[in-house]
Amino acid sequence: MSRLKGWKEIPIGGTIVEPGSSVEFDVSSWRTYRPLFDKKKCTKCGMCWIFCPEGAIKINDDGTYDVNLSYCKGCGICQRACAVKAITMVKEG
Amino acid sequence: MKRVGLSGNYAVAYAVKMADVDVVAAYPITPQTTIVEKLSEFVANGELEAEYINVESEHSAMSACVGASLTGARVFTATSSQGLAYMHEVLFMASGLRTPIVMANVNRALSAPLNIWNDHSDAMAERDAGWIQLWVTSAQEAFDATLEAFKIAEDVLLPVMVNLDGYILSHTYEPVVLPDESLVREFVPSRPLQNRVSPKFAYSIGVVGPPEAYYEMKYQVVDAIEKSRKKIKDVDKEFGDKFGREYNFVNEYMMEDADYALVTMGALTGTAKAVASGLRKEGEKVGVLSIRCFRPFPKEEIVALLGDLKGVGVVDRAVTPGGPSNPLFADIATTLYEKGRRPLLQSFVAGLGGRDVPVDDFKLMFGLVKDVVKEGKSRPCVYVGLRE
């Protein structure tokens, strides 16, 4: 994550002038649990990708799924959505 | 230029019309109603080309103002008391989003008990909302301050609240000089402000400010209102040059060689001045200082004018129950303390809920200030005119 801007540098009025700036917003410290993906069980159905409210699930080259931990808040929705229980939530730290 | 008889409320409405506002969003409330009533008349008969939004509450009125202001429109609303309280959360958004809204607040007591008469508790409860607060003492000042408010607001990108006392100023007819509209337009030109919600930009407004960002964004408001002091001074100067009426952060009356003074806000100032003038004839060296700009607070002026006095009485028309003192007193005391100046300060509360504050009450206050100086120590807050 880049250096945080000071009060003189940020646009006034809480205005975000750069589109897509949320990609810089790292939420990894929010997490208590993180998802672990079992590629052997994965059927490539994409339900985790559909249900993730943060868009934190990425598609691997082989069609299976993984998580971008910068954007994962650890909510566990992907685990619930996975019909074949290929995702387990493990405690951080 | 013409001289006409206008109520304080109508004086505000005329100023808003002459400033050629684009949007008025308002909900009626006593004693403010005749401002927005007059404005709706101006819009209906074609004298003012503006969008007039009838809303179902003050919360919506201020919300509509914020939205409209973000499009770059010149925006006005008016309220009083419960209406201002109902706007409370949106007031902070207006300053945080840096929307230059101008609002007339016709000061009225807050319930309970239900009371439609004048005191300053409504505006005092919103003093930390990040709004510039101007306070007037006559219908002419209400007109002038409203015009100035648009210029100040749009230059510093902060909302401005023009406070006038309910009934005493809002419903009393006084002679008011209305300048030529062309002169007003020169002073507050209709200028397009930036449209921050145009589909031409990919701007996001009203975003979340997490702990990493909120502090910096809030400080921007602190910085802006501090820097507004210079702008307000410039606008006062320009107003004086153009219209011939001089304004400052404070109004001083017989302060040059005063030993004792009362500090007031709003319409109480008139009676205080009349009593001071009478006491001067009896040889008492008294003066009156009224605060015209409450936010930003006129720190330099307070220190310069009150710092060397023997005794100062501060008249609050609002209370801070359970607090160490009342709002105006607290600000005066803090300002002087910070600069190491120690005139004897005496706190007064007067005129809550529209209670009349007659000449005798001011005589009593001036007398008490002199007494406590003699005694060498101030008394606990004196609730003037309170029945036991």
Structure write-up:
The complex is a heterodimer of chains A (93) and B (388). Chain A is built from two helices and four strands. The longest helix of chain A is centred in the middle third of the chain and has 5 residues, at 47-51. The relative contact order of chain A is 0.26. In chain A, the strands form two sheets. In chain A, strands 1-4 form a two-stranded antiparallel ribbon. Chain A has a two-stranded antiparallel sheet with strand order 2-3. Chain A has a single domain, classed as 2-Layer Sandwich (Alpha-Beta Plaits), CATH 3.30.70.20. By secondary structure, chain A is an alpha+beta fold. Chain B is of the alpha/beta class. Chain B folds into two domains: 2-243, Rossmann fold; 250-383, Rossmann fold (3-Layer(aba) Sandwich), CATH 3.40.50.920. In chain B, 42% of the residues lie in helices and 19% in strands. Chain B contains twelve helices and 15 strands. Chain B has helices at residues 8-18, 33-44, 58-70, 81-96, 121-124, 139-156, 181-187, 214-243, 268-281, 299-306, 327-338, 359-375; strands at 2-7, 23-26, 51-54, 75-79, 102-107, 132-135, 160-165, 173-178, 250-253, 260-264, 286-291, 293-295, 311-316, 344-349, 382-383. Chain B has a seven-stranded mixed beta sheet with strand order 3-2-4-5-7-6-12, sandwiched between helices. In chain B, helix 1 (8-18) runs parallel beside helix 6 and helix 3 (58-70) runs parallel beside helix 4 (81-96). The radius of gyration of chain B is 21 Å and the shape is globular.
